[in-house]
Amino acid sequence: MTETGKTLLRARAAAPRLAALGTEDKNACLAAMARSLAGGADRILSANAEDVAAARGRLSASMIDRLTLDEKRIRGMADGILEVAALPDPVGLELESFERPNGLSISKVSVPLGVVGIIYESRPNVTSDAAALCFKSGNVCVLKPGSDALRSCAAITELLRGAAEPYGLADAVCVLTGAEGSRAAAAELMNATGLVDVLIPRGGAGLIKACVENSKVPCIQTGTGICHVYVDGRADFSMALDIIDNAKTQRPSVCNAEEVLLVSRDVAADFLPLLSARLRDARSAAGKTPVELILDTEAARIISGTPAGPGDFDTEFLDYKLAVGVVADVREAVSHIAAHSTRHSDCIVTDDPEAAEYFLNAVDSAAVYHNASTRFTDGGEFGLGCEIGISTQKLHARGPMGLRELTSYKYVVRGKGQTR
Amino acid sequence: MTETGKTLLRARAAAPRLAALGTEDKNACLAAMARSLAGGADRILSANAEDVAAARGRLSASMIDRLTLDEKRIRGMADGILEVAALPDPVGLELESFERPNGLSISKVSVPLGVVGIIYESRPNVTSDAAALCFKSGNVCVLKPGSDALRSCAAITELLRGAAEPYGLADAVCVLTGAEGSRAAAAELMNATGLVDVLIPRGGAGLIKACVENSKVPCIQTGTGICHVYVDGRADFSMALDIIDNAKTQRPSVCNAEEVLLVSRDVAADFLPLLSARLRDARSAAGKTPVELILDTEAARIISGTPAGPGDFDTEFLDYKLAVGVVADVREAVSHIAAHSTRHSDCIVTDDPEAAEYFLNAVDSAAVYHNASTRFTDGGEFGLGCEIGISTQKLHARGPMGLRELTSYKYVVRGKGQTR
What we know:
By secondary structure, chain A is α/β, with parallel strands linked by helices. Chain A is 42% helix and 20% strand. The first copy, chain A, contains 14 helices and 16 strands.
């Protein structure tokens, strides 16, 4: 049996023990994990230095930045664990209960999913975030970090496991070190039906696609966001500019950033010059990176910019680039979004309540906005307290996934000898 | 493009139109579908006669019985559609709503899944059942019947589509006739990510395994049930016998029937002779099929029966067969179930509240029972009014899936220009 196979068996075996652990013990163990991380900062930093040294010259500067830990980031990881400990326990809740005419009493009770696999890339902090969210929701996690972050993640998980040891639950946090190769370990995790209950990939579009297409374990599709803002014929221009500016430039590298702007033909000639002034001229004048405007034929007749090529309205730029198109009205905007959106977050800016309701109903995305930035699609901003990812699929959970979305339920049926 | 590919595109295109249809129109259309089926009974019967003739000699008698329709069964199908029409509309419900400190108003609203693929076998009535459940929940269905039932299903869907035509929604009910071959059509359906939102296989263990392992479209694992009854040391013997008899013999061919009996060592010597008398002697005397008892070593020392072979405690017999084992106590029963159950439905019979609570908590199945037959795991019996299947996985839905389990949700966010 491979190392991965042995780890998966230990994870499965730990699942019922963790599921049986009470809220107080879970919180105490999470607090011990946070202390353990803070106390072991030196070990983490020295492992991380090795990862960073090995990555130099091979990874881009921004990837190395994601990989690099310092004291402050480690404190942030420890604080993150304490924040999760402070959230309400999502398991053991009676979600519904009813009595049937035959006297059967039926309760629907929240339970952990069981064993949750997390495949991620080079951010070492995902290790403690995911471990804490899974632990609090009663789930054993099997972490599969990218090979670039392996030493850092091994050091972090060792500290977390040490803190769970006194509870007999070191195996509540498992890591696939990929002794037999990173790809082989990932493949084994994706094939581990019966041992792993759900797989959550966290990372770029390529990783997510590979998991969705290859995993036999049920997989939650997260992340990729081609988010739209539609400026309606009755939009408040100043509000529209604020929303677009925020959705595009506040943090362009994230999935809830805007990638496409659609403008109603009624107002395009008036609005687009304002857009160009705000996203290019004003930003340049302020010493900020101007946004590259990638224009369809009609927009290009109104303002200057890069002519849109095939695929530009289907690209998650994650950069200071915005595809801009002109549409007839809200109906054409909805059709465009249906054809090009990744169903993450899409927004209409309008003062027309009818157009707004039409858009909110007809756009089939995890989050639909009227007069607010798409950047709010986030577990913290939605008040979930945390998130393990943002689901762009429709099964199980949609949008930001917090602790509750890491649970399933079971029906508990109590009878007095009833038969059918 | 294949015929299947064209059908899938039509299905996708119909999804937003069906999602926008109001409750009254949906119900009126369902009533028209029921009338259309009843009025077209002759066409269905003649298509069905061809299917049955082609199946003779090739399929078993019980398979041919499942395949065969008569006036009464067609009336039952039409009535089933009307029952679904009478259920509450599961979409458009505000599941939650809250306001954030920044003034954003967020509602979580139930929405259809979109396009639901159903792969099934030779029961033609699944065609109208699944179509009605999907339609009521605002989902376009893409039906892939087994090749044995193809003519019957084509006749049924033609009548359903005809009834939906006046609403511009004939494509709300699509059927894959498999012009390019039944397997090729199924494979194309399983690969149709982006066009199909979820796949629900309905049928035997082989079909379900093939879907779960091969589908790139998210798939809900349904059905297979290796259900256990555990007779505790403090069980009421008479209640235990009633429950076991019901769970095993009332309808042995279904997934919520009992396949394994575990008996506490404390009472095995007293209880097993009563079991043998009830399930074998009394049934034989009444002219009913006796239940074959397949015994582990310890049970075989107490009563006569077939010695259990390897795999007998991991088999869904769907027949008058029951694997019987002796365990030390409720803890060993729970461990046995963890190792052998398909996580469908498992029961403890006991008068000891502590043992009952331990079992209900520790057994990780969709439905866990205290003192009632496992046969109650059913959408109708749980009060859902209907069911599209019984999920044995933990993502999305668990246990009986009714209309509500055919929905997802989206977050509707209303603002006044908020940015982050």
